[in-house]
Write a structure and sequence with these properties.
Oligomer: single chain
Number of strands: 13
Strand content: 15-25%
Helix content: 25-40%
Largest sheet: 7 strands, mixed
Length: about 375
């Protein structure tokens, strides 16, 4: 038995048998130790977090792994990397772990900044990293979304010039929830990567029926894909994500880290391994998310608020026809939302919580 197999057995990850029947209490909001007290705690609908996770198996794995947190994760990270490689149909040397996909994103920015030039992204998309990128000396170029709030791939392709070092695509897109048509995106990647790096953020791909683009990295040296355990797997606070890329890119990114694959805690790695094996929980999360999303969109539509079809765990909608003070309504009902992303149309985003939370959200708007 290998050292890491022995290590896993010692902390119980190879013998976890917690039943899935308990999940119903999570999804139905009846487990007070898991879900917030809706009468007193703020309802957090701002950061696209999973309101049900971590999964039962992940909780047990985290609790057990605390006892060996005095040791580095050298023996455990290879186990996770192998599982992720299998999940993404790649080799182990195509995977790089990070403390959330944001660490991987920051690493890609450092890598890109070494070459100077510009980077391209949509307007509007997940862009919290754009300001640090500009501080590193990379010029930002934005390309407007289409009228239906999708990436304009042709316009982004045409925006690439000799100084472009990276193109960023969030798919599904945050905050709009829209999804690129797969064949169009593959065609875009095929052409764009002849000139520059294409970085595809698949933080929300697990909420769709679309397969990942990770199988393309084996033959494409200019494609980087990031994934996270923060959303579907409910590990936002545990901070664990990873990159999928050609081995040459993984090597070049790894050089920029003092200790590659060691920034993720033992507890987080244990949770990730357990989460990948908790298939029933993931199915329940997807089902609950779909039901609550369908309800919320129907209710917002009844309030004459335009919603963009969502392939994620959040909804992008317009406040243009809303007559009340939206943010005051949320505040008065102890609900935390986000902001206005586009002044033209007063577009905002709301995270999909539990069904009870979304019912409270709709009551607040009414």
């Amino acid at each position: 038995m290998s050292n890491r197999r022995i290590w896993l057995k010692q902390i119980g990850l190879g013998t976890i048998g917690l039943g899935f029947g308990q999940f119903e209490t999570f999804a139905n909001g009846t487990n007070e130790s898991i879900l917030p007290d809706l009468d007193h705690s703020p309802i957090l609908l701002r950061s696209n977090e999973n309101p049900y996770g971590p999964s039962p198996k992940a909780r047990l794995a985290m609790a057990k792994s605390v006892n060996i947190s005095n040791r580095y994760g050298w023996n455990l990270s290879p186990e996770l990397i192998t599982l992720l490689a299998k999940k993404n149909t790649v080799s182990d040397n195509n995977i790089l772990l990070g403390a959330g996909s944001t660490e991987i994103l920051d690493l890609i920015l450092q890598y890109t900044a070494l070459k100077k030039g510009n980077f391209i992204l949509a307007e509007t998309t997940f862009d919290y990293w754009a300001a640090p990128a500009e501080k590193l000396g990379i010029k930002k170029i934005t390309v407007p979304l289409t009228k239906d709030k999708k990436h304009d791939l042709l316009a982004m392709l045409n925006a690439i010039d000799a100084d472009t070092k990276m193109v960023y695509i969030c798919n599904p897109n945050n905050p709009t929830g829209t999804l690129c048509q797969r064949e169009e995106l593959i065609a875009f990647i095929r052409e764009a990567t002849q000139k520059t790096i294409v970085f595809v953020d698949e933080a929300y791909i697990d909420f769709t029926d679309e397969p990942s683009l990770s199988d393309l990295v084996a033959t494409n040296k200019n494609l980087i894909i990031t994934k996270t355990f923060s959303k579907m797997y409910g590990l936002a606070g545990a901070r664990i994500g990873y990159a999928v890329a050609h081995s040459t890119i993984i090597d070049e990114l790894s050089i920029l880290k003092s200790s590659p694959n060691l920034s993720v805690s033992v507890v987080s790695i244990a949770a990730a391994i357990a989460s990948l094996n908790d298939v029933d929980f993931i199915h329940q999360v997807r089902t609950s998310n779909q039901e609550a999303k369908k309800y919320t969109i129907a209710q917002l539509t009844q309030l004459n608020l335009t919603c963009i079809p969502s392939y994620s765990n959040f909804i992008y909608f317009s406040l243009e026809n809303y007559k009340k003070d939206y943010f005051k309504q949320l505040q008065d009902h102890n609900i935390v939302g986000t902001r206005i992303y586009e002044e033209n149309g007063k577009w905002t985003r709301i995270t999909i919580g539990t069904m009870k939370e979304m019912q409270r959200f709709i009551e607040a708007l009414k």
